[in-house]
Amino acid sequence: MTLGLSSSMTTIVSILTCLLHTGNNRLSRFPQVSQARSSITGPRSSRFPSAAHGSLVRGANEGNHDTAAPKRLITDDQLKDYVRDGYIVLSGLLEADEMNALIDAGTNIVSAHIEKLGGKELPKGNFQVHEYGLVLDDKEASGEGSKNVFRRVALHSKLPQIAAELMQLDKSTENLRLLRDVFLAKGPGSTSSCGWHVDDQMFWPASYQLPNHSTVDQSGINAWIALDDMPLENGGSLAVAPASHGDSVSWRNDAYAALGFDDSFGDGISKDELFKVIKSGKVDTCGLERMAPEIHQQIEKTKTEFNFKRGDIIFMNRWLFHRSTDVTEKGKAAVKAIEEIALLKRYSLRYVTGSSSLPSGFMTELSILGTSGANSGKEFNEVDGEWYPQCWPEVDDDVEEKIEHVVKNFIPVAQEQLAVIMTEVMALFRSR
Description:
Blueprint: H1 9-22, E1 26-29, E2 47-49, E3 56-58, H2 76-85, E4 87-90, H3 96-117, E5 128-132, H4 139-142, H5 149-156, H6 159-166, E6 176-186, E7 221-226, E8 238-240, H7 252-259, H8 271-280, H9 288-291, H10 293-300, E9 304-305, E10 313-317, E11 322-324, H11 329-336, E12 346-353, H12 366-369, E13 390-392, H13 399-409, H14 411-430
Parallel strand pairs: 1-5
Antiparallel strand pairs: 2-3, 4-10, 5-6, 6-12, 6-13, 7-10, 7-12, 8-9, 8-11
Helix pairs in contact: 3-5
């Protein structure tokens, strides 16, 4: 297993907890790296769920087939829904060939892992795949020399523009960068899930201050793409707590505290402080139900779940509480009847402003390890190397060459450093 994760206080603890609790049936792998480019034209349809029932309503952008890029892709009503609820679900944003390419690439990733383990029955059982950094490298998904479909969708599709519109960015003064991407899949027997949480610095390796909504929220967007149909009654997808990114929910600050989120930690902590936390066993990003069951029950009463169709994309505020949903018995039966090797697939993209910054504390982020710490604490616009490519208002013409330079010259160094750190952390974790 190779690891290419950013990890700060909650990050290392949570990932090691998952690894130790799911045993050998967990398929885990982190960064790699490759090439590609394209664009997507005109939105065909859109949906957005009602907060009360999670239903999907069609219609806002239907009929717009202009070949030129539209000035705006979301409606005023959709923006209001997002600002109020912290999320919006849209469909028809990706062309059929792009969706098919994402699905094929995901299937290849799972197939490669299963082949390595020699587990022919795993696709129908307990397995889970987390594949990070595919915009950098997707050779295992697409093959050497093939175009990188993850890069195409993350940088050249309509997704960055929609994220920028939801964040209400001004293209004359602001820009958007890709912070993190991850492909996930799991079998119907998977027992791995993550409870109510907001992303820690593994999934969101940026400095933070807890949200203050006196101004427009530009903390970031998570675009979560369903690569399979995921009916509500089958489970195995995602639930959200509407409006939990704002201050209208009574339990929000208590949930932050239980999960270890505090402004004093927003810029990271030292290695010694992190190791003390690991030894204490008190931090678990996915463990809110265990650590604060009363808060978990409060959130459960407000949750919205979805009837996701293949190609639906939910755009979520960086601070929206969400959780994975368990596969139901009906879902297990339905998934087992499908003759596919990779099931319950999804691809997730995190977008942030270029003026956001990396934490300056101890991290296992490759962009920091690969530059001997030179990128620690830097704004993403100032980071050395194309680790976080700009995707709005435009993509650099030479982005492919810049990414490949990082892949060839810095990622090998970072992975060596990471292996040393994770050996030390694993030994500490097991000795608790």
